[in-house]
Amino acid sequence: MSILGRAEAAGVAVCNVRAYGNESVAEHAFMLMIALMRNLPAYQRDVAAGLWEKSPFFCHYGAPIRDLNGKTLAVFGRGNIGRTLAGYAQAFGMGVVFAEHKHASAVREGYVSFEDAVRAADVLSLHCPLNAQTENMIGENELRQMKPGAVLINCGRGGLVDENALLAALKYGQIGGAGVDVLTEEPPRGGNPLLNARLPNLIVTPHTAWASREALDRLFDILLANIHAFVKGEAQNRVV
Fold first, then answer.
1. Whole-angstrom distance between the N-terminal and C-terminal Cα of the chain?
2. CA-based angle 224:227:233, to the nearest 5?
3. Is 172 helix (H, G, I), strand (E, B) or coil?
4. Does residue 153 sit in helix, strand or coil?
């Protein structure tokens, strides 16, 4: 029996905290997107290595720098976070498409097929739950179909991406870069191939996309409201 099932059987009320981190997660994904498109990690490394000081010109130009304007963002997951990110991208002049479920028998209005989204996107951003249908939804085959310079962002769940396939795609220049805030095991006590990669086109953050100060304030406000509602005998954000 699941945890929720056991809670229900024991007569224990369970509430959740909804939509507190929409902006925080979307902004984190957008930060990773900009940093990778403009090759920020590579330039940080070059400056630290003294390459700018040795440049014969006023600047040090190494890795390619790309604008978001005019590029295509494919969002996988059309919930609150995915829609918030889409709004940010459109404000920067990006075209946005929402990807249909993988292996879907039909494409809903307002979506493009999963395969078309993978092939068309300059940036792919994952914001969907992890389940049997989405596990390793981005694997070796999908990475091969992506544009050579495309960027993959995962602020959803670690298991959405085959991490070994992603590492190989980054090492061999199959895609342009990746930014991940989630790993298959958290915390990664046994290590993780992405943590040891030391690649200039890979950014790993420790599952902190949700944790802006403003998001934490909203989380506690909703939590307290749930408790107060329960004390008054009202159902708010109840899942059991």
1. 14
2. 145
3. coil
4. strand
Between 142 and 1, the more confident residue is 142
The pLDDT, as a whole number, for residue 19 is 94
AA letter at 15: C
38 and 128 share one domain: yes
Check pLDDT > 90 for residue 155: yes
**Which tokens sit at 137?**
């939804």
**Structural domain that includes position 181:** 19-209
- Whether 231 and 185 map to the same domain: the answer is no
Residue with tokens 């991406």: 161
**Residues 141, 67 share a domain:** yes
Distance CA 120, CA 65 (A): 20
Per-residue model confidence as pLDDT tens digits over 195-215: 999 999 999 999 999 999 999
Please check whether residues 23 and 121 belong to one and the same domain: yes
Same domain, 124 and 97: yes
What is the three-class DSSP state of 221?
helix
DSSP 3-state of 74? strand
Is the preceding omega at residue 187 within 30 degrees of 0, hence cis? yes
* Shared-domain flag, residues 137 and 173: yes
Question: Catalytic residues, which ones?
Answer: 157, 186, 207
Longest dimension (CA), the chain: 73
3-state secondary structure of 239: coil
Q: Does 2 reside within a domain?
A: no
Residues 229, 155, single domain; the answer is: no
The number of domains in the chain is 2
Dihedral angle, C-alpha 14, 17, 19, 23, nearest 10 ° = -150
The CA distance from 78 to 109, in Å, is 13
